[in-house]
Amino acid sequence: MNVKQGSTTFLKIIIFLAGIAVLALCICLPGIAINDAKVHPDTAYFLIPFLVCAYGFCITFSVALCQTFKLLTYIEKDNAFSELSLKSLKIIKKCAFTVIFLILLGIVSLMVLAKVTGDDAAGPISLSLMGILVTSTVATFVSVLQKPIKNFQEKNEMKM
To answer: Can you give the pTM of this predicted structure?
Structure first.
């Protein structure tokens, strides 16, 4: 096993573990929502937007993880500059923007909930904004990776 294959295998293991964590979150979410509805029955209707955002986030994040796994497989097979890699990067970027949208939707519903209950939502909102920052960084990194792949493909098309 060479160094490149060892590092991609390590990254694949990390992606697999992240996928297990997302699956565990999806399994635990209904229980968390039911317990919260029992404790706060007057605001139980706010759980629906929360669950929609949470499951949308989990599905989108899982799609991005699968595409990242595919991208690492392409890299292992020396197809890093292929059309398939570019397609995976485009899907990852779309997933990042979808996650940002879902986080913003969650922030809006959290602000409405805070107005209704009179609670302070500054902590969860600041964590959400940090999530947007991280996701924006990922989207930017993917955009930076797309440019050399496009340039490589254009040069190869010109040679043919």
So the answer is: 0.86
